[in-house]
Amino acid sequence: MLTFRKLFATLALALAGALAAAPAAPLLAADLPGGAEATQFQFADKLRRGVLVREGILLVRADGCYFTNVEVVNGNPHPVTVAISYRWPGRRGRPLATITALERTTVASGEFLAVDGEGCSGTVGSYYPTLSRSTPTRIISVR
Any signal peptide, and if so, which residues (predicted)? Predict the structure, then answer.
């Protein structure tokens, strides 16, 4: 059985290799074409079941288009399936809007995965004034 100390050492080695290959500059609201109104959300590192999800950025524009930047490091001795999404809470526990940053993807042992995604959603665009005032929840699924 893998002890916590061995798991941490494996993650540290994987993270060191990941930092060497990490993208240079994150996506910023100032980089948007046409000076569109946008809200940027940042998320801290999160360790879930031996998978380190590094600091992520979600940029949502007023027209409903969004950009995501997610980095994943698998510290497990076996491959895992990872999915990441962002959800804004609505009334009575129903989500107001959801953005998928990473579809179910298999990450090999010790592998680093960087995902830059973008898309547009009519729901996000129609609720933008509300969404820009609240913080979404980052949902991480590791199997």
Answer: 1-29
Report the domain count for the chain.
1
Of 124, 136, 138, 133, give the one whose Cα is nearest residue 62.
124
DSSP E strands: which ranges in 24-142? 38-43, 46-48, 51-53, 56-61, 65-74, 80-89, 95-107, 112-120, 137-142
Domain containing 43 equals 4-142
Residue 76 near residue 109, CB atoms below 8 Å: yes
- This prediction has a pTM of 0.74
CA atoms within 13 A on the CB side of 29: 12
Q: The domain spanning residue 111 has which CATH number?
A: 2.60.40
Taking the CB of residue 87, how many other CB atoms lie within 10 A of it? 15
Q: Among the listed ranges 3-7, 36-40, 86-90, 121-125, which one has the minimum average pLDDT value?
A: 3-7
- CA-angle at 92, arms to 88 and 96, nearest 5°: 25
Task: Return the bridge partners of 71, or none.
Answer: 114
